[in-house]
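Figure S4 source data
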Amino acid sequence: MQKKFLVKIPYIITKSTIKVLTIIIALVLFVVMAVFIYCLRMHKIDDLASIGLAKAYAAFASANQQAGIAILDEVIAKYPKASAAYQAKLSRADVLTELKAYDEALNILKEIQNGAEPEPLKPLAAVRIIYVYDAKKDIFNTITASEEFINKYPDHFLVRDIYLNLAEYYLASGSKENALKIFNEILISFPATQEAEKAQRRINEIK
């Protein structure tokens, strides 16, 4: 009797192992399918958001601003996590800035700067924040936003312009010393460039 039971043990273990492996394989397949479906869905969402954004730009190009704004709002509402939605938010902020709704524009731009995808949209939002503060005649925050841009994105292709504008903002605020400091930083950081030529010309004019 004992011998018979011992003979059955390998069979029992093998059968249990097969059941466990079957369950594991089923779970793995389920997860793979779920990920695949999710990726397809996200891809479809991105495509739909991009199509909506293109329609909005087409409306603006044909001078139909109201339709363009409505489509931007629809893209933002329907596809909030799509990269095209963040681009739509940038365009929405531009419209608000044009309408002098500066605080609303700043709220959108700060949201993009803090959590936009893809990453390259963040500095584009940061540049617009500088412009909005400048449009508001808020010199203190314009300077602060410019300095933050330089610190966060020292290698960005727009940083030279930000440096030059920052020096001018300092001059406008009455801080000649800081303006000269920034112009000299441009000479050191970006030698043999158009920005360096402009900085040197401004230094000569100020002195």
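Figure S5 source data
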Amino acid sequence: MNPNYFKDAPIKELSNKKLPTLGFLYLDYVLRFFDHSNFKGWPNKIETVTYHWKNDKECFIKEVKRKKIDVLVGNIPATAYETFREIALALPNVRFIPDLDTQFSNKSKENVTRFAWKYDLPIPKTYIFYNEKKSDEFLKKCDYPKIIKKSYGPSNYGGYFVHKVDSYQEAKTLLDEKQYNPQYIQDFVPMEADIRVMLIGHKPVCAFWRRPTDGGWLTNTSQGGSMDYMDVPKSVLDLAVKVSKAANAEYWAVDVAYGKDGVPRILECATAFAAFPYIRDWIAEYIMWDLSKGRFKKPHIPMFNWEELSKMDSSILRTMRHITFGKYSPSSDGDCYGAKHKYFGENEVYLHLLDQEYKIKRLTLRTKEEWPSEKWNYQDNLTQVKNKKSKLIVSSDEDTEIVETQESISKKDLKKLLKSVSGIGEKKIKKIFDTFENKENVIDVLDTNPHILTQIKGITTKTVKRLEAIWQIFKMQ
């Protein structure tokens, strides 16, 4: 993406001719998040481009270029994510909303976890295996209960691919039946409920509790859980804002586990989520405001609007469109009677003042890829070589535990081994560690897909073959 495209700057509102050409990004067999009715008042034609799966990548790229689209709006499902990373690279002057780095978490629960690890966001302690033998060894020794989830696939599971296991035998039976790859395992966190928070421009615009049935642990409404919208804690809203900013998201949803210990932890986050039509209208208003440099008004969405709207029947909310709110303006009567307040965090506050604390903000566009697939597509990269050893990756918002699943080697000795390969010197070793960040990730690459190293400038296929041979000798010692 061109870093100067629609960069926030003090320029005049854009005329019809200067407005970017919008296109809706649609995919066959995938529900559409936006349509023309959401972008009420946009004066120019909005194009549509549909991806037809199979070998449609080049046709899609050509159609975007032919229609001279500047901005493509729409979510990418997990199964098309890697293809659209390639499409985005082939269209460097087209802005994707949300961009593909923001949609990184849409692809899998593993990606959500890696996103959370990078930005030090609280999540339940998580274990990821790409090796069944090592997974089995871990499950024999670990404490129970554990949660096992399907990592990759459609985003809206409704709880049907989330399992609680109370013993090794339950875990083994489940994984033998489901054949999940990777094996994605979390510590079970006793929780009061989970909370879904939706945000636009990093501002919470809707939030609700999902509570389990008596004696149950799943909070999904499809599994019998209940919903209510009242008194979502400040700690949860603040965490959701932090996560949205880390993702650099125009719009975003976060599922937060509110533990019985009072600690909020992230369960899921993505740009793909179910939302009432009026929320999609608000997102479109935000996008139009952003792209037009203020020609369209920034939407005003008061804090805790969801508490009042939730008093209406959901069947009405599903049909309501283009809801607007007036901003609070004090009057002689309003000063005494009209300013609603509530307890929020440690203080009693006026609701209209919270709109100053939680503002809708414009994004700063990225100037380079944050999650390039050659490094972060573990789903494909770590399954290319069957039965190879792979590291167990463990992280936590509590204690971090690293379990070694390959021969122990220090960072110093690993660098010495790399340097012994003809064609790899100090500068290339530095590039390797700068690219893959730590010793464990470098070992993962050597164990599973060393060809990835050719992405680093100066490392050739011949060099990688030499390195593979030396690495195999090392592992046999």
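The chain has 17 helices and 16 strands. The longest strand covers residues 191-200.
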